[in-house]
Every structure is written in C-alpha cells, then in structure tokens.
Amino acid sequence: MERTGIAIEQLTKRYGSGQTAVDALKGVDLSVEPGEVVGLVGPSGSGKSTLLKCLGAVIEPSSGVMKIGGSPIYDNRWLAGDLRALRRDKIGFVFQAPYLIPFLDVIDNVALLPMLAGERNGASRERALAVLEALDVAHRARAMPSQLSGGEQQRVAIARALVNRPPVVLADEPTAPLDSKRALGVIGLLNDMARQYETAVIVVTHDEKIIPTFKRIYHIRDGRTHEEAGEGKALYETADYCSGH
Ligand SMILES: Nc1ncnc2c1ncn2[C@@H]1O[C@H](COP(=O)(O)OP(=O)(O)O)[C@@H](O)[C@H]1O
Ligand SMILES: [Mg+2]
C-alpha cells in the first residue's frame, strides 16, 4: 500500500476554450504524507485556489491524476461515483471567508457534518465541542455566527473542517484574519491534528507569520509547482496556546 495522503501528478486545468481559454494549471506535481502539513505559496493568479478546488472536487480538472490515501479519485476523469460523498467524508475545507450557516449556532455549525455523516446528535455535539475547545472558542458554543468576531468565526470554520477527521484538509489563507498568536495557534492545531489523525494538510498562504513553520513548501508560479525545504520552526507559542485552555 502507498502511504501517500495526497498525490497529484501532471494535473492541468483550463478554464474556458478557444481564444479566451486560461491555462490555470499546466502540469502540477505535489504529494503530502499523512500527518504532514505543507505550505503552498505563490503570487496572485498563479493557480493556488484552482489547485485546491480541483483536489477538493469542487471543479473538474482537465487532465492528470489525483489520489487520496493511495486511491485514485481522478485519472483524466472522476473515478468516484458520488463527489458529494467524497467531499463530505474525505476532505475538510477552510476558506478565507468563514461561510458559517447564519441560522445555526456555533456548536450546530460544527456538529452538522458528523450528523450528516450519520453520527448521533449527542455524539456529534460532543465531538464538535472538543474541537471548539482545542480552538479556544468553546465558550461561544451557543452564540450565533453574527455575534462572533472575525477571528472567532474563522476558528469555528476551522473546527468544522476538522470535526469529521478527514484524511485531507485544504486551507486557503486560513490565518489571514487572525493575529499572530492565534495564527500560530491554528497552525499548531493543524499540525497536532495532522499527526494525531494522519491527516494530509495543504495550507495556501501569504502569511509571513506562518510561512517559517512549514517543513516543506510548494511554490506555484504560472501554473507549475516546485518544492522547497522550509524552515520548519517550532511552534513555542502554540504549545502554550493549546495547553492553556
Ligand atoms: N472561473 C474562472 N474562469 C476563468 N478563469 C479563471 C477562473 N478562476 C480562475 N481563473 C484564472 O485562473 C488563474 C489562476 O487563478 P487562481 O487559481 O484563482 O489563482 P490564485 O488563487 O493563485 O490567486 C488566473 O489567471 C485566474 O484569472
Ligand atoms: Mg486564490
């Protein structure tokens, strides 16, 4: 068995056709081990969001191969019969904007996914509360999204991405609205969760506060990736942050 959490080979994506076609991805290779958090860094328009949307089965690539946990999900066409189930069970998303459901309180926003996956309500809420605690936002469990600060909303969104313990987590600028301590806290939590649950995590970011924490970074430019070693700095603040609450 392949141990690879995420494997992408020669992935391309063309938007549109003819004269106005845009080749957003021109042959991307990338792999992330279970338990690993890698950074994806590149200038605006370089294809970062396109790559995450392809891997997240939100848009269809044009060609190439994508595998999760060693199993191909795309090989020049989708191989999974049910893309919605694939997204729900295999992939956690964290977006720039939190997209919480406005008429559900915090705990139900997070508990919804395990409920949809068939878990009992009580167990779903317990699991949601544990993740909210780890993200230092459990005291807001009964608040509505509109009552939260931007940083709190983002932490709830991250809790929601992690609650089903998916093998893959895709995060597009997850720490942009957060201060330094909370940004490092989030990266620390992603690292802890990745190790504990063997999750493969890709973090798209420009955030100078968190870039030094990655052990491996993929740079993307003009639709192609190249890999670089990162600094892999220890997360002192984060250990403090996670244990103190
Ligand atoms: N829906 C779309 N239709 C046409 N072109 C798009 C679409 N989405 C993105 N693009 C183009 O694809 C390229 C990569 O975009 P994107 O993946 O959003 O880059 P990034 O996230 O790195 O800023 C850009 O040239 C962008 O204009
Ligand atoms: Mg983008």
Structural summary, described in words:
With 245 residues, this protein is an alpha/beta fold. The protein has a single domain (33-57, 82-243), classed as P-loop containing nucleotide triphosphate hydrolases (Rossmann fold, 3-Layer(aba) Sandwich). The chain has 7 helices and 10 strands. The chain has helices at residues 48-55, 83-90, 106-116, 121-134, 150-162, 180-197, 236-243, and strands at 6-15, 22-32, 37-41, 63-68, 71-75, 91-94, 168-172, 200-204, 216-221, 224-229. The strands form 2 sheets. A 6-stranded mixed sheet has the order 6-7-8-3-9-10. The chain has a 4-stranded antiparallel sheet with strand order 2-1-4-5, covered by helices on one side. A hairpin with a 6-residue loop joins β1 (6-15) and β2 (22-32). α3 crosses α4. It is globular, with a radius of gyration of 18 Å. Mean pLDDT is 89; it is low at 237-245. The site of magnesium ion (MG) has 2 residues, from α1.
Could you please say which CATH topology applies here? Rossmann fold
Number of E strands: 10
| Helix/strand class | alpha/beta
Rg over CA atoms, rounded to whole Å, is: 18 Å
Mean pLDDT: 89
In short, what is this structure?
It is built from seven helices and ten strands. It has helices spanning 48-55, 83-90, 106-116, 121-134, 150-162, 180-197, 236-243; strands spanning 6-15, 22-32, 37-41, 63-68, 71-75, 91-94, 168-172, 200-204, 216-221, 224-229. The protein has a six-stranded mixed sheet.
